[in-house]
Automatic annotation (TrEMBL):
Name of the protein in its database record: NADH dehydrogenase [ubiquinone] 1 alpha subcomplex subunit 5
Membrane topology annotation: Peripheral membrane protein
Role description: Accessory subunit of the mitochondrial membrane respiratory chain NADH dehydrogenase (Complex I), that is believed not to be involved in catalysis. Complex I functions in the transfer of electrons from NADH to the respiratory chain. The immediate electron acceptor for the enzyme is believed to be ubiquinone.
Cited InterPro entries: NDUFA5 (IPR006806)
Keyword Disulfide bond: no
Lineage, highest ranks first: Eukaryota, Metazoa, Chordata, Craniata, Vertebrata
Location in or out of the cell: Mitochondrion inner membrane
Gene Ontology cellular-component annotations: mitochondrial inner membrane
Subunit structure: Complex I is composed of 45 different subunits.
Amino acid sequence: MREHTPRVLALRAPSERLPSGCGACAARRPSLCPLRARLRPSAPRMRLAVPGCAAMAGALRKTTGLVGLAVAENPHERLRILYAKILGVLQNIPKDAAYRKYTEQIVNQRLNLVQTETDVQKLQDKLNSGQIEEVIVQAENELSLSRKMLQWKPWEPLVEEPPSNQWRWPI
């Protein structure tokens, strides 16, 4: 965890300067920053409406901010399970199928990140796919798609030949 290095916020006068949050908090949300609370709990005109020191995000995060998407309690475990299931389904698809090659590559990269990175915030940043809960939804959707691809068998040849002018426009 990073050392708590506060930024400074000017309130009324230069003599009344307070830290605006910890150095790890990119959103500059001071209300729950432990250092700020210790220094001046009753500072005048201090805005305390928004939660959030990033150092405390895991302990204090109660919502994703996205309607209908709850906070994941064990995101690493959930992602490990989902990625293992996806890889299991992909084992039933022929090795030369494009879907298997590329999906397997992406899932293995993400699984490696999940196994190596223990901090949820850093994992979100490395995956670069939104909040960790959104990544879980993406993995669930990929698992569903991989099962459907196994049923559809798009790697097999077509049952009948397509018409010769199928891709010409206008006819």
